[in-house]
Amino acid sequence: MASLLENVKTVALSVAIGAAVLLQTGRAEAQDMQTLVVAGGCFWCVEADFEKVNGVTEVVSGYTGGTVENPTYRQVTGGRTGHYEAVEIQYDADQVTTRQLLDLFFRSVDPTDAGGQFCDRGDSYRTAIFVSNSAEQDAAQQALAAAQAELGQTIVTPILPASRFYLAEDYHQDYYKGQDRLLTRGGIKTQAEAYAFYREGCRRDQRVRLLWGDNAPFVN
Fold this sequence. Notes:
Layout: H1 2-30, E1 33-40, H2 43-50, E2 56-64, H3 73-78, E3 84-92, H4 98-106, E4 116-117, E5 120-121, E6 127-131, H5 134-151, E7 159-161, E8 166-167, E9 181-184, E10 187-190, H6 191-202, H7 204-212
Helix pairs in contact: 4-5
């Protein structure tokens, strides 16, 4: 009898585990996965910021908005490609909305600067939002209007139609946490150390804090 009860318990437990797996799989498949493309200056920094956001599953660095196919980093930063340094944010819309991401975006950059971002100057470092449908267009316009009203200054970040997004070179992906060692102006550093050195030297966080104060989401 005890053996029979043990077998029943084992079968019941297996069924329960199987049901839980199916429910979990169902929830995963039901996720509303979407993408949003923004340009906020150095893509290392934008990637590092948005990978902290709940509901964001991945952020990848790349180039978009220009006319040159398969551009390289050297071409883009050298100008004449029309491309921006940008990121593609992949997110679960059941956890975070497009509007919420755009509100965070505006408060993580200097949207009043038409010539680049922080110490990075030139067209490839300008801010922009790339929209692929009317819902993104509406969310971007609402987020821009709200940010401009809060800031009390003219925002120059354009809302542009999405175009092909080209992945940046492998070494740019997750640069902010890379452990490869390289020679920099500050000596031999890991990528993560070089990134921190660059971000501090560029005074990105200081400018964002000056503009947005306590509403700057990624500034310590």
